[in-house]
Write a structure and sequence with these properties.
This protein is 29% helix and 19% strand. The protein is α/β, with parallel strands linked by helices and 225 residues long.
Length: 225
């Protein structure tokens, strides 16, 4: 260890306070970025008329074929992570690390938001790996459709956010590469959505649902109650 890095308690406190100023600036910058993200324009997925058809994508799930609209599971917002599928016993360590760090989905559900995984691989291979990893996140096969290519996951992985208005689906956000690295908690996921955390302190458009900060937080097994 470099002994020159050892300082007095007073010097350490001064260095900590100087760094805290920059950390708070960073937090405020992230808040401003999230506010801008909530005002992003949207694009209808499938169909050019008043009713979008969700792109007509058919995914294979444990209970059979489902549509993009079905992936919302009745909620208004949907986060889809395209998990890179390498085939056979070759599993993507980066996507696996991302999935390991996803929090309990009840917190997202409490904010009317679903999160699912999709992979361009057969469900017969996906399910055993999911069970091996102990993951409970809904996971669907996109093998046979163009979802990955159309949604920017042609290199294997990406994250997309969608908003549902009735049966019409809109794409509101996309990120990939290092943009995925900073994600992994309920708050950071919600910050990507058009509704945000839905708390009154946020700078959001007037028509967005909001409630008092902290008031909606629960233990993950208490939301239904």
């Amino acid at each position: 260890m470099n002994s020159s890095q050892v300082v007095s308690a007073q010097e350490w406190q001064a260095a900590r306070e100087a760094l805290l100023v920059k950390e708070k600036e960073h937090t405020r910058a992230l808040d401003a970025l999230a506010a801008e993200r909530r005002r992003m324009p949207m694009v209808r997925v499938g169909g050019d008329g008043e009713e979008g058809d969700g792109g007509g994508y058919v995914f294979e799930g444990p209970d059979g074929p489902v549509s993009l609209l079905d992936l919302f599971d009745g909620r208004r917002q949907l986060i889809v992570y395209s998990f890179m599928w390498l085939g056979g016993d070759a599993f993507c360590p980066g996507c696996s690390m991302f999935t390991d760090n996803v929090g309990h989905l009840s917190h997202l559900h409490a904010r009317d938001t679903s999160l699912v995984l999709v992979s361009r691989g057969p469900l017969a291979e996906i399910i055993p790996f999911k069970e091996r990893m102990g993951w409970t996140i809904p996971w669907f096969s996109s093998l046979g459709n163009d979802f990955n290519d159309d949604m920017g996951a042609d290199d294997g992985f990406a994250l997309n956010v969608f908003l549902r208005d009735g049966d019409t689906v809109y794409r509101t956000y996309f990120t990939s590469g290092r943009g995925v690295e900073r994600l992994g908690s309920g708050w950071t996921f919600l910050d990507l959505t058009p509704f945000g955390r839905q708390e009154t302190w946020e700078d959001s458009p007037e028509d967005r649902p909001q409630s008092g900060p902290y008031a909606w937080w629960r233990l993950h097994d208490e939301y239904e109650a």
